[in-house]
Design goal:
This protein is mainly α. The protein has a domain at 106-316: MetI-like (MetI-like fold, Orthogonal Bundle). 71% of the residues lie in helices and 0% in strands. Helix 5 packs parallel to helix 10 and helix 5 (97-133) runs parallel beside helix 15 (284-316). It is elongated and about 75 Å long. The two termini are 46 Å apart.
């Protein structure tokens, strides 16, 4: 009898282990792993991020080290004394192209990450407050959001980026990082509105649900309801918007830097490297190293982030079976 009871107990324990509830994020990860393009995108993006993070270790030179005897040097041209060869050649000032591509990834990816996080944070708070309060608060915040959406963004981006550089105080305070701070500030100003409207719509659909009414009945204040209930339950569209917005920021920053209104040399980004490549002689090796290489980095980054966004959208949608 004792053996029978022990067997039954062990079977019950095994059944309980098998029926152990799986968290929502574990289910999301399981669905995500089945999305092959999303996993491919994660692999490529992780590879580019690691190359950028360890640029100081991988790169054979510093990003501003010059070899004026080898301007527009070809592939595998001899380097400086006691230095490695220039694998991707050199640019118009004799700087190692491979080194600048690696360091440029730090700036381009870093700017995109900071801008995306700040834009998502501002848009989430504005949208959640607008949807939760309603009334005149909703009216003021959404009308201001609509006003920002109607502004011609590209001309204003160019004007602000150019004008802010004229302040001597900022130049003395920030030095060579001034252009990076300015481009982050300018892109954040025009980057939060879409997220705000998205979060507002999600909050409007959530605030009439039973669990919100229960929280109100238990005495929860509006701030607690917003930050403990409404925003956490709106994370799915916010995460998807963040991934897709990251790619948009990469392209916008690269376009501004290419036009000469973004991050300024000698600080390298993939965009201003493309701008500098316009003066390169149009021969085979310079066409690849000066133009196609940074352009390929932008292309792979944006493509990978879009694949990840598609995978997250499918994984976070409970109506889809993957």
């Amino acid at each position: 009898m004792t053996d029978t009871n022990s067997v039954i107990a062990s079977l019950e324990d095994e059944a309980q282990k098998q029926e152990k509830p799986v968290s929502q994020w574990m289910l999301v990860w399981r669905r995500m792993r089945r999305h092959k393009l999303a996993m491919f995108g994660m692999g490529v993006l992780l590879f580019l991020v690691l190359l950028s993070l360890f640029a100081a270790t991988i790169a054979p030179y510093t990003y501003d080290e010059q070899d004026l005897t080898k301007v527009f040097g070809s592939w595998f041209v001899a380097g400086l004394p006691d230095k490695p060869v220039h694998v991707f050649g050199t640019d118009s000032l004799g700087r190692d192209t491979l080194t600048r591509i690696l360091y440029a990834g730090r700036i381009s990816l870093g700017v995109a990450l900071v801008v995306t996080l700040l834009s998502i944070a501002i848009g989430t708070v504005v949208g959640a407050v607008s949807g939760a309060f309603g009334g005149w608060v909703d009216g003021i915040l959404m009308r201001f959001t609509d006003l920002m959406l109607t502004l011609p963004q590209l001309p204003l981006l160019l004007i602000l980026s150019s004008s802010l550089r004229q302040f001597v105080g900022l130049q003395n305070l920030l030095g060579s990082s001034l252009s990076v701070v300015i481009i982050v500030f300018v892109l954040v100003i025009f980057g939060w509105m879409g997220v705000a409207r998205l979060v507002r719509g999600s909050v409007l659909s959530l605030r009439s649900m039973d669990f919100i009414e229960a929280a109100r009945a238990l005495g929860a204040g509006r701030s607690r309801i917003i930050f403990r209930h409404l925003i956490p339950n709106s994370l799915a569209p916010i995460i998807v918007a963040a991934t897709l917005g990251f790619g948009v920021v990469i392209i916008t920053e690269s376009a501004l830097s290419f036009l000469g209104f973004g991050v300024m040399p000698p600080v390298p980004t993939w965009g201003n490297m493309l701008n500098e490549a316009r003066s390169a002689p149009q021969v085979g090796y310079t066409l690849f190293t000066q133009t196609l290489a940074p352009g390929l980095c932008i292309f792979l980054t944006v493509l990978s982030v879009n694949f990840i966004g598609d995978g997250l959208r499918d994984a976070l949608d409970p109506r889809l079976k993957m």
